Amino acid sequence: MPDTQPLNVLFLCTHNSARSILAEAVLNDLGAGRFRAFSAGSSPRDNQAPNPLALQVLANAGIDTSGLRSKSWDEFGRADAPHMDLVITVCDNAAGEVCPYWPGHPATAHWGYPDPSEVTGSDAQRLEAFRQTLLAIRRRLELLVNLPAASLEKMVLASTARSLSRS
Fold first, then answer.
1. What is the spatial distance between Cα 164 and Cα 151, in angstroms, rounded to a whole number?
2. Are strands 107-110 and 86-89 parallel, antiparallel or unpaired?
3. What DSSP letter does each residue of 3-21 carry, written as one string?
4. How far, in Å, CA of 26 to CA of 2, rounded?
5. What is the pTM of this model?
6. Mean pLDDT, all residues of the chain
7. What is the largest CA-CA distance in the chain?
8. Which tens digits make up the pLDDT trace of 124-156?
9. Rounded to the nearest 10 degrees, how much is the dihedral formed by the CA atoms of 112, 114, 116, 122?
10. How many of the other CB atoms lie within 10 Å of CB of 160?
11. pLDDT of residue 2
């Protein structure tokens, strides 16, 4: 991977409101120019927006939330979309869906996380579920961003990303 060309990573989830948004923001924060993260959903609801608790835990962690928005994965299948090097599903529903054709045949992996928006209880308990999801995503992404360049070459990227799902 040339130093001047960031690795484009797309995180997918069903609604693109929590886990994929968290992953996009964290990787853009940790990526140090080596990575450029995006997120999308297979079926975001009309007028879908990032979950306010996701935005709150990101802000609490000092991670920029400007520009985050829920969007359909269709945006990334268009001719003018950024070329993706790696596509990672972060929820089990999206992993089981038939994904669109991604130009350039990016590497793919599945990193499943429980949906923090399904947690019930007090506001503090719900916020803690989002914080725990953020921490789990961050741990895995820290491993990804610290991999040597050889592990990020296109031929080994898929197996590298899939092996991180066990981390």
1. 12
2. parallel
3. TTSPEEEEEEESSSSSHHH
4. 22
5. 0.88
6. 87
7. 47
8. 999 999 999 999 999 999 999 998 887 777 657
9. -160
10. 19
11. 44
- Rg over alpha carbons for the chain, rounded to the nearest Å, is 15
Higher pLDDT among residues 33 and 94, named by residue: 33
Render pLDDT for 49-63 as a digit per residue (tens, 0 to 9). 899 999 999 999 999
User: 10-49 burial by CB neighbour count: b if 16+ within 10 A, else e?
Assistant: bbbbbbbbbbbbbbbbbbbbbbeebbbbbbbbbebeeebe
Give me the domains of the chain, ranges plus CATH numbers. Answer: 7-159 (3.40.50.2300)
Phi, psi angles (nearest 5°) of residue 66: -65, 140
> What tokens were used for 122?
């007090």
Nearest to 9 by CA among 107, 116, 93: 107
Integer CA distances (angstroms), 152 to 25, 62, 75, 117, 129, in order: 20, 27, 25, 32, 31
Report which of 84, 83, 88, 82 is spatially closest to residue 160, judged by C-alpha positions: 88
